[in-house]
């Protein structure tokens, strides 16, 4: 089978067959300890470059179209779960009672 070689995206001196490039990317990525962009998982960069990339990521406008002209860094965090004790159906004006 005629399988041309391509250069790896993280280290151009790595030459691998085109059919094995995906496996090589995963292997090489672990060695490089690259960070994943919060806007596009295909963007992988080292820590020093990540802050600049996040502020200027071209995929950011697809997620936050209103922030196209503003240069802001969005702090991503996990939402606070609603605990059972914090939610009382009796006090919720939108709560429906189906048992009547």
Automatic annotation (TrEMBL):
PROSITE patterns, alphabetized: ZF_CHHC_U11_48K
Domain named CHHC U11-48K-type: residues: 5-32, 34-61
Domain of life per record: Eukaryota
A Pfam family hit: zf-U11-48K
GO molecular function: zinc ion binding
Record's keyword terms, sorted: Metal-binding, Zinc, Zinc-finger
Protein name in the entry: Gametocyte-specific factor 1
Source organism of the structure: Papilio xuthus
